[in-house]
Amino acid sequence: MANLVRILTVSADRHADRPAVRLDDDTLSYAELDDAVSRCAGMLRAAGVGPGDRVGVMLPNVPAFPIAYYGVLRLGGIVVPMNVLLKGRETTFYLSDPGAKVVLAWHEFAEAAQTGADASGAECIIVDPATLPGMLADAERVEDDADRDGSDTAVILYTSGTTGTPKGAELTHDNLYENARVTVETLFEFTSDDVVLGALPLFHVFGQTCALNASTRVLARGLEGRTWEH
Asked: What is the pTM of this model?
């Protein structure tokens, strides 16, 4: 199995009580993050999402982002990260072009997300920190990571479109895993004692690789190879 979500699954298995995500005074351990990811996957499965389906993730740098990101991957779905400042015309394109089935949108940007969802035929799930815990608690857990090949698409990241219509770049599970591994082992030489400040937007590849995936990968060393067994 070469599903990128394995970096979280293995880290949670090995270091359940270690802090994984912190925002202000709120901290999620790896076990708590993994549980939330499992329930997010269950919520998405109830909405009809399955392997290969595209899911828009229009969230800022809050704990809901890794929950949604890895939740989509756990199902074998494909994450379509979206800038939270997109307007209705832009969200319509970002959801229509990849054929997204669902979009998870932060409550402060609900209007633009809903406009795009209505126009593209996607379901819009509004993510609000006040209601998200209840939504996840009501969802059935997805215990197992979907079996994916390393060459399968994990993320479709859209270019800025400064010289034309944005283009969707398909990033594979192997691609993103290797980026995280190299970041951890050679670029920054992260250790399990390091804390990574997620200042860059997680909906861009730099933030995803050097903050989210790299920091999650630190505790999951030893997954090299296409099967990534532990």
From this structure: 0.94
